[in-house]
# Entry
Amino acid sequence: MPHITFVKKILANGEMCKKCHEVSERLASEGLIEHVNHIAIADERDADSEGMRLAAKHEVERAPFFLVEENGEITVFDIYFKFKKYMANQGVATQSADL
# Structure
């Protein structure tokens, strides 16, 4: 399995971004969170936070996003449904959101 990093953002006011919260909930309800190896926070109040550095390094301008490292190659997914489709193609079944 690839190494997966989930990057979510904390806004300048200290709150989690709405989309990041929604995607976190989807990951949990669909059973994909167990495949995430690391969660990094992009804190708008700290340009040197891990998530902000990863966003700059991989030229990602919106959060949340996923970094999937496999065989030395990193693929960036900044749309949850593309990440979910990638996981399905890896043979990872998602649970129904109503479980």
